[in-house]
Hints:
Immunoglobulin-like, mainly beta, 5-stranded mixed β-sheet, elongated
Amino acid sequence: MKKYLLPTLIGFIIVVTACKKSGTQGEPGVVANAVTGKVTDSKGNPLANVEVTVENQMTGNHNTRTVLTSQNGTYKIELTSVGIFQASAYIKKNYNGVEYHMPLHPDNNELFNKEGAVRNFVWKLSGAMPDNTGFYGGTCELSPDIYIVPIEDFEKVEFTLTPVGPIIDGSNGTVIKINPVRVSSYFVIRDIPIGRYFATAAYGQGTNKISLQLKKRDSNDPYALSAIINFPGSISDPIAALSYKK
């Protein structure tokens, strides 16, 4: 019997070691009757005090539980009832005097049960949400002044957004040059990282290019060759709206 003891012991050690290494180092693994995970920014830095919610979607047993992430960005929520669950996370940020409640991106958006699950979240400033339900960035609408004929060849419109100071995550942001998409009689730019921007717009090509005059839509502001964009504190798809004229 002794000759089998050493291989058995070695096999036991290998199994235990493999179990310990099954998750990413420093991140929680699957725990029965619980959902665990870690919340980070786009650079992998942990985010503390982020709301993580588990919703039981089973008919007749619907309920939610919410916790805040720890200083190292981790969380754990006990699953105290039978059901089919989904996890979500939101970060609250005050930016230029406006409070934003922003959804975070899950690494896995599938439902789970009491066997447990790991759901990690990342704060993405842009990109598509799961199941194509929207974008993490904001939207800018550019509509014509009520006294002018709308521009038809919208592909000749170039919109430039220059960050004014840091954007919502504290980074510098980048200058955005883009041709907006036409929707009915106005133009739309989607998925802009939330920030404050100096906006300009030009129409035409080559020597025929002209600057459009802009102002905040439905305001008494005068038209000018530039406008400042601020996004409202909406939970989903905040929209900044401008009017234009030639």
